[in-house]
Amino acid sequence: MTDVRVPTLGESVTEATVATWFKKPGDTVAVDEMLCELETDKVTVEVPSPVAGTLSEIVAAEGETVGVDALLASISEGDAGSDAAPKAKEAAKDDEAASQAPRNESGASVDVMVPTLGESVTEATVSTWFKKVGDTVAQDEMLCELETDKVSVEVPAPAAGTLTGILAEEGSTVEASAKLAVISSGAGATAAAPAQATAPAASGAEISGGKDVEDAPSAKKAMAEAGLNRDAVTGTGRDGRVMKEDVAKAIAAGTTAAAPTAAAKPRAPSAPDDAAREERVKMTRLKQTMARRLKEAQNTAAILTTFNEVDMTEVMAIRNAYKADFEKKHGVRMGFMSFFTKACCHALKEIPEVNAEIDGTDVIYKNYVHMGVAAGTPTGLVVPVIRDVDTMSFAGIEKAIGDMGKKARDGKLTMADMTGGTFTISNGGVYGSLMTAPILNPPQSGILGMAKIQDRPMVVGGEIVIRPMMYISLSYDHRIIDGKGAVTFLVRVKEMLEDPRRLLMDL
């Protein structure tokens, strides 16, 4: 009998909540197969099986709070786990066959492994394969892309040759240092590839011969609604399973049901097929994590937002007067972000609680500014961090923002690039937002929202004049920042932007 216990949860974390059990008593488990998921106030931790066997007892049920090293469950080894052993052996044989196939005549084969994912990151999801079995690849050519909770990681080919085996399909979860694929070089590689490429077709034939394959739930629903028989649809998924898009293709091609199922509802011949016009796409790990963290921020922090407006006349005048000389000397364009970053750094020194965070019953004041700059990318929102921004010049800030922006667009951000921020700026104005109230980026206590610059009539010196105005906002954690501090912070930012000379004089 082997005990399954709560693993180390991280510095200063002493307890967790059992969120989900993936197995139930009596189920067979393999070594390192996920048993359950724990949630702390900072991270989600998956608990793998330490041995192969049968889950004999669950001690901590879902929803219970457990401490570090607490007993979660018990696993019986030996004969009880015999069902798991053949599966593991069979998988090992498959891996061995895949790795040995290219050695027949080519001589050399190279394993494609999961690269280092970053500190505390133990697994990733295979999001996209850029190559298929049988394709020739050059050294360092991109083979696939992995997604973790925070970043996307591209996997290059370690050697030139032919991709002779893909061991981790799109959508599968792989652990750090797991094998993804096999590359073989030489003439034998070319010969081995077609044989393996025909494997799916053979597998499909086996399926049609009666192999039990579970079709996608969305495909089952679409077939039922369309009145299609399973035999009338050609499956293109793994092992020949029918996917939703296969059903849509069958409907578009005019396929009729061979024997409508009893569950199919009568449909008017001209009724539009809503299911065929829908598309279900699994959320990326990045989006899943972002959604969870934003909701956690709403559930945990007492978020409040205060607004003000800034007359951008002086900032725009300085920018127009010096932008050409600035770019010529420093090799980077002068934008508005450096002005806002500088103004926030000055205001954070005056109102230090905005640059602090709550840790249990303590408040941690940061005597430095690591500025997060929110940026939208094709894969989702990311917040790269510029460290010690309070010590940087205008040119240094613009260069750092430009470099981080390029890395974000190219999907090159690392874990280190997005951790450790103490305050964040979110510029919704670049998308046309007139007013914004951003959500906190935990564990930070404040985030500045920028909107677009718009000419508006303003009363200045008793006269109505047209001025370029911008609404700004501060979303803050009311548990640590009171209303006076939040309003004062935003007023200081406004004052320094409307009279940028205050930035030079540290006023």
UniProtKB/TrEMBL annotation:
Its cofactor is (R)-lipoate. Its EC number is 2.3.1.61. Residues 1-76, 109-184 form the Lipoyl-binding domain. CDD domains: lipoyl_domain. It catalyses: N(6)-[(R)-dihydrolipoyl]-L-lysyl-[protein] + succinyl-CoA = N(6)-[(R)-S(8)-succinyldihydrolipoyl]-L-lysyl-[protein] + CoA. E2 component of the 2-oxoglutarate dehydrogenase (OGDH) complex which catalyzes the second step in the conversion of 2-oxoglutarate to succinyl-CoA and CO(2). This is Dihydrolipoyllysine-residue succinyltransferase component of 2-oxoglutarate dehydrogenase complex. The gene is sucB.
